[in-house]
Amino acid sequence: MLNSTKIRDRFVASLLDHPWRWLFLLIGLTLFCALGIAKIKQDYSPRVWFGKNHEEIINLNQFEKLFGSDQSIVIGVYNENGIFNEKTLKTIQDISWDMGGLPEIRRVESLSTTVEINSKDDEILINKILHSGVDYSKNSIEQIKKNVMGNKDVIDIFVSQDAKLTVIYGYLNPFIGRNPEFKPTIDGARELIKKYQKNSDDQFHLSGNATAIRAFQEVAQGDNKKIIPILLFSIIMVLFLTFRGFTSIFLPFALVAVTVLSTMGLIGHFGFIFNSLLSATPAILLAICLADSVHILSKFVQNKTKGMSSKDAIEGSLKINFVPTVLTSISTAISFFSFSLSDIQPLSSLGIVAGCGTILAWLYTYLLMGPFIKIVGPVMDKSRFSPKFNVKFKFDWREGLTRFIEKNARLIVLAF
Fold it and tell me: pTM value?
């Protein structure tokens, strides 16, 4: 039976004896996993927090089949001088009509679609408040205002009590059996607002639960666009100041790239729905990949400064870090996998994805760094790409910290 040392030695020896074989395996595995990215479906609605067979989701589906969807967009029209003027009332009619043509909009409700019921003698009269043939004379507008403000079914539903704000509701089709996609509807509503905002004294505001769900998606994507570049720049600076070498910056970021691509592809292969929690996956993997790669690089550079060749230096680093990085990766993956027991679907998915990403990060660290350095080692040994820095300046503080911990181990344990 092989012990861990023999397994380690054989694995590292194979990496360095057949570097191209392992690099091609890495590329092939990355491409296979990355194909899953095309399968990823997104959902930022409340539905995503529950499984398809959850009791509440089943009840919601039955409700929407009978009564339609409660997902909506709302356009608010505000006029400081009041909405009861010819231009604003016409705008309400026009927006109500145009909103009905937006993707997924099932019905529109506004002052333009609301009816008033009156009686005359024995006759019941049903008319729209803003019908197509309405006369926008001063007297007619005053009568419309009187009818609206005196209708308790309209006040605080379509019109504010101060008559300065009205809202137009657009209700969406149910998304039963398919992932909600609000982007076309929200984008269309924003274009409508831009169209009517020109040369208008009215103010327009977009709201509604569908708008809020789309906002969650935009915020999640926007955060990644802002945060990740800042993280990358900070990491580049730290790596450069620490190792002072192109290879020491390139390898960690190459590792991040292949790990993130593969892990995001697994989301599609597993059939998970991408959501606000899963959008944190790249940042999580960034930290894990850097931890793995810096462990290998630190020992590699230490070995190089002792006069070892690149091949011997990376071999020593891979061997000495094998067990510590394996144990760290396994324990971290188990922690993430424990989230899969949660009934909260996004948290469960994040646990599985991050756990698999942690394992891939360790595997890719060895499949990338060992073979790559073996291949470019002769060039590194003779060129400016070889690490060059003062060992005392870079590592004495670490050795001092280690000696301090060893000397005061009991005190440190008691303190914590």
Answer: 0.72
